[in-house]
Amino acid sequence: PGWRGEHVPTTTMFRALLVAASVAVAHACYSKAGTTLAMGDDTWVCLTIANSSDWTSNGELGYKRMAFPAKMDEFTKLEIDGSWESVDYSVDTLTSALGVSSGQELFMHVESEGQFSYQKRYRTTIGNAQAVTFPMNVAIVNMDMGEVVGITWDYGCFNCGSDSCAKNTYNYKGGTHSDGEAECYMNDADCSSNKCDMVVYVVWSGTDVNGNYLLSQQKRLSNFQLGDVKIKY
What is the mean pLDDT of residues 168-190? Predict the structure, then answer.
């Protein structure tokens, strides 16, 4: 098991196997490089999956952290192969590894150059104990003269109806983030690994070290009208 990457003209795609990626370049996920970035410079974008949204609790927190190499301002797709395997939490590799039982939740967030996004639920229950997964997110890395100053989310129910759309943004104390908007989820009964493996699209917004305005943010999904684009997880 290992890394697999593919470059295409408009999108950079990185896939990581769950078992291998969790140990790759862990320091890149939370350290700040101390340098400013120009378009096309090498950087890191990291995904962390945790069994709780409360990082302030004295209880033991389980998490997996995965580092992806990226080029600044290249529209990028990050995908974790094997992150969704089964409706049954007891046999799913990720939920089992993090000690999550049916009815409990998995959370994820994005990190880059020492900055953190708010958290999102990845697997959870909604309504009358309906097991669901939020498989796809769009992260916006905000830049100011080449320095990462924050990471926000692109919101919207781009590929689903209102009956499969819910708010899904959390702070690090276990509470909901008031500014978060709704996004699509899938019923676990309708999932397969092809549909519900974790996918995060990454764009950059702001200016690079030379003052150039970054262009990849133009591809965030909220810039398109519903029906203009079909999303493939």
Answer: 92
| DSSP single-letter state for residue 40 | T
Buried b / exposed e over 58-85, threshold 16 CB at 10 Å, is: eeeeebbbbbbbbbbbbbbbbbbbbbbb
Helix (H) or strand (E) holding 217: none
* Whole-number Å distance between alpha carbons of 164 and 126: 10
DSSP H helical segments within 43-143, as ranges?
Answer: 93-97
Q: How far apart, in Å, do the first and last CA atoms of the chain sit?
A: 21
> Does 10 score more than 60 pLDDT?
no
Beta bridge partners of 80: 16
Tokens 């690079």 belong to 208
**Distance between CA atoms of 213 and 145, rounded to whole angstroms?**
9
DSSP 11: -
Give the span between the Cα atoms of 231 and 11, in whole angstroms: 14
Residues 47-94: tens digit of each pLDDT: 999 999 999 988 788 988 888 889 999 999 998 888 999 999 999 999
d(CA 170, CA 177): 5
Chain-wide mean pLDDT for the chain?
83
**Residue 199 in this model has a pLDDT that exceeds 70:** yes
Number of other residues whose CB lies within 10 A of the CB of residue 190: 12
Question: Other C-beta atoms within 10 Å of 134: how many?
Answer: 21
pLDDT, position 204 = 96
Burial of 216 (0-12, 13-18, 19+ CB in 10 A): buried
77: its two tokens: 């797709």
